[in-house]
Amino acid sequence: MISKWRAITKKLLFFSLMLIMASGNFALTAFASSISLKESGGGFESAYIEWSPISNAVSYNTYIKSANASDSTYIQLDNELIRKYSSYWRADAVGLTAGQYVMKAEAILSDGSKESTVSGTITVSANDRTGFAFSGDSKYGSGSGAYQDNGTIKDGAQVIYITSETAKTVTLDVVVNGSGKKQTATGIGEILTLRQKGYDKTPLAIRFIGKITDNNLKGMLNSTGYLQVKGKSSYAEMNMTLEGIGEDATAYGWGFLIRNCGNLEIRNLGIMLFPDDGISLDTDNCNIWVHNNDIFYGTAGSDADQAKGDGSADVKGASTYVTVAYNHFWDSGKCSLCGMKDSAEFFVTYHHNWFDHSDSRHPRIRVASVHIYNNYFDGNAKYGVGITNGGSAFVEANYFRNTKYPMMSSLQGTDTLGAGTFSGENGGMIKAFNNKIEGASSLIYANSNATSFDAYLASTRNEIIPSSYKALVGNTTYNNFDTGKDIGVSESGINNVNDVKQIVTGSAGRMNQGDFTWEFNDAIDDTSYTLNVALMTKIKSYTSELVSVGGK
Prior knowledge:
Strand order of the largest sheet: 10-13-16-19-22-25-28-31-34-37-39
Number of strands: 40
Shape: globular
Largest sheet: 11 strands, parallel
Strand content: 25-35%
Oligomer: single chain
Helix content: under 10%
């Protein structure tokens, strides 16, 4: 009798399954009874959790708490931080101090019940706030924008979310005159235009989510295709952070133009097919921190050397106390112009950047005093650091792998081997210390040729370069800024040069190295500075896997 009932039960289950499949609603997830953790992890002052969907969930909420705190301390994340992808859901928490956390995802089911999954302990690291953007000699002392230097958002800060759908409709009340009167701005363009009046210094975090195209920003960009962030006058206090959320925030077909800004941060963004420059610190900016971005090809310019776009991240127009750090430059033609028509000294730091088969300008310096440390120069076909017009550069503890000419000064040393790289400009001075150099074609130190050289090789970090060493053309001396000024980093903050490759390739670029993958062929790409057609094709065909934003 029991065997007979088992047989009937099996038949009933079989026919039920056939009916479900015939209805077209059959899916493996239909049988999931609880929410399932897929992945979790921590980054720089951020953490995330991913989970598999439940078919009968109508919405999701997410929470975070310190690992050792009670469950009553869970803080709910903004709804916009929850996103749906093709096969999973994800939420990111930002503005965290370094430490250990636990995240929770909660599903609200169709019957009103709840299911949740909790991560293990997530370790969050602090951002590396060093360099001139954090110098005590600077105007604001910090480039953390809307955030405090411990990573948390400032009290009273405003937060807005920019997606492909909300870029033109997002609203914010902005103070527009001295009496404190506010006006509601609609669209990111109008928000930034009203902030330009200079009355509203409220800390503002602008959070970009997913792939946002120039068409999504139509009417929000200026006439040359930039999202312009501008203060009322030189070095105006902005207290602003422009940040990508997660691994896939991408500015696609547009760039950032920064003018008259003080205390501004740009982080965790992919920038593709930008017009002219990707990030242009154009005029009178200070305490600017550009870090953890992936910068790809721009659109081709009119000049022969602009096939990959023009500057990837340029610093010019009396912009000073700037830190450019932990960025991943993907085969850039011209990474970073540092000074254009500048005539007065300004101060910039480049550290922990991955110059990944990029060609030149790492950076290309005029007039400025620049500290360049712990960068990974990886198969650079033209040159590494270039200096002209009396600039001074301290090049410290970098790893140069197959960089043709690691350091150059205009019209002397290696630069005289060819037709001249720097348009006949006067030379400048480079102090080199403790760099790791492999596969260079030419590097001439002043210690072996005191007249025509690329750099002075210091025997100690704090060595003062004698005034007897001068640029061959222009006769300028090294100004020893690194020993007489607060450069925003101490000796203890410099990583061992033998660890630079591992640190940089593991940390530069967006969170978890972003959602774009590419493998360069060293045998070809180390020496080629032509546009990589296959890479450009992949960039042009890039699509986001993001389905929707919000927990429903």
